[in-house]
Amino acid sequence: MATAELPKVHRALVQRVYAEPLQVEVIPTPQPTAGSAVVQVLFTNVISYMGDIYNGTRKYSYATPLVAGCSAIGRIAAVGADATLLQPGQLVLIDSVIRGRDDPTAIILSGIVDGVSEGSRKLMQGEWRDSTYAEYVKAPLENCFPLDEARLCGTPASGGLGYELARLMYISALMVPFGGLRDIGLEAGETVIIAPATGHFGGAAVFTALAMGARVIAMGRNTEVLSRFKALSARVETVRLTGDEEEEVAALQKFGPADAFFDISPPQASESTHIQSAIRCLRHAGRVSFMGGLLGEVKIPYAPVMLKDIKIHGKWMYSREDAGLLVKMVEVGLLSLEEKNGITVLGTYPLEEWKAAFDKAAENPSVGQIVLLRP
Ligand SMILES: NC(=O)c1ccc[n+]([C@@H]2O[C@H](COP(=O)([O-])OP(=O)(O)OC[C@H]3O[C@@H](n4cnc5c(N)ncnc54)[C@H](OP(=O)(O)O)[C@@H]3O)[C@@H](O)[C@H]2O)c1
C-alpha cells in the first residue's frame, strides 16, 4: 500500500441522524484499502437542492451517520496496493457515481442516495458511506479520473488552457447530460431539442450537445438565457416554452423534424407542455432521453410514439466510459470552461460555512454558475 503521511484525524461535515443539521466534526482519516484511493479534497460541488436533500425535503434515501458530499476535485494522498496508474500528488476528479464491482447495476451517488436495490444500499451502508465534504475521502480507484493539470491549468503560453482549479468542478455537471445524449446515440449533424434548457443541467446539455457536433434547439421559459445560448453558436435555435402546446409545436416545426429530444425537467415542471410538444416534433425513429427529476406520471403522446417508432430511454447519470470521454473533451478544448460561456465560480466556502454555501446554491444560480465547498 502506497501511503503518504495521512493525518490521523481530519475535519468532515457529518450528519448523525437523517434530516438533522450537519456539523463539522473531527473524525479518523480514512485509510486506503485495496481498490481505493484516499484523496485530499480541494473543491467539492454544492448542487442547488443540497439543502433539500439533507433536511429531508427531497426524501432521498441514504444511510446515516454519513459524511455528506458529492463529486470533487482533489489530489491523491494515498492509494491501495492494487493501484496501477494513480499516484500521490496527482490531480483527479472524483466521480460520485459508485457502482458495485460485482454488479454494476447496483449504483449509489456518493453522499446523496443509496440507489434502488439491496445491493446498492449495501454499498452505502458499508465501504462507501462517507463522501467528499471532508478534508480527505476514500474513493474507489475507478472513480478517480486523472486530470491533465498541465494542459487544463497551465498558461496558454505553455500550451495550457489556463483554468483555475475550482473551475474544473463544472466538468461534473457536463458529465450528466453527456450520459443521456450518448445513451441515445446523438451524432454530429443531428438536431436535438433540449428542455428545459435554462437550468443547471439543461444549460450543461446545450454546451455538451454543441461540443458533440449537434444542432441544438434550446427550449425554455427564460428568454434572457435563451438569447445567451443563441449567441454561443450558429448551431443554436431557441423556442420559448409558453405552456401552449400547439404554439410550441408550431415554433419547433419551423426547424424541421428533430432527431432527438433530451428532457431534464425538475419536479416543479410536472405540468409543463414541453414533453408532449417535443415528442410530437421528432422525426421517424427519433430518440428521447428522460433524465429529469419528475416524480409523478407524465402525459406521453402515445400515437406519434407508436406511429413513428420513437425510442424513449431513461438514464440515471452516465457510464464510466462517458465520464472518461467527457474529461478528454474538456482537455482537448472541445468543451470550454471559459468565463465567456458563463462558466462562473459564484463562491467557494469553507466546511464551517456549509449553510451559507447551500443557501447560495439554492438562490437559483444561472447556467454555468457553480458553488463549491473548499475543505
Ligand atoms: N438523471 C440524472 O442522472 C440526473 C442528474 C442530475 C439531475 N437530475 C435531475 O434534473 C433536474 C433538473 O436539475 P437542475 O439542477 O438543472 O435544476 P435547475 O437548475 O433548478 O433548473 C430547472 C429548470 O427547469 C425549469 N422549470 C422549473 N419549473 C418549471 C415549470 N413549471 N415549467 C417549465 N420549466 C420549469 C427552469 O426554468 P426557468 O429557468 O424558467 O426557471 C430550469 O430551466 C433535477 O430535478 C434533478 O433531479 C437528474
From TrEMBL:
This is Uncharacterized protein. It comes from Coleophoma cylindrospora. Residues 202-327 form the Alcohol dehydrogenase-like C-terminal domain. One of its GO terms (cellular component) is mitochondrion. It holds the Pfam family ADH_zinc_N. Residues 52-148 form the Alcohol dehydrogenase-like N-terminal domain. GO terms for molecular function: oxidoreductase activity. InterPro entries: ADH-like_C, ADH-like_N, GroES-like_sf, NAD(P)-bd_dom_sf, Zn-ADH-like_protein. Transmembrane segments: none annotated. The lineage of its organism: Eukaryota, Fungi, Dikarya, Ascomycota, Pezizomycotina. SUPFAM superfamilies: GroES-like, NAD(P)-binding Rossmann-fold domains.
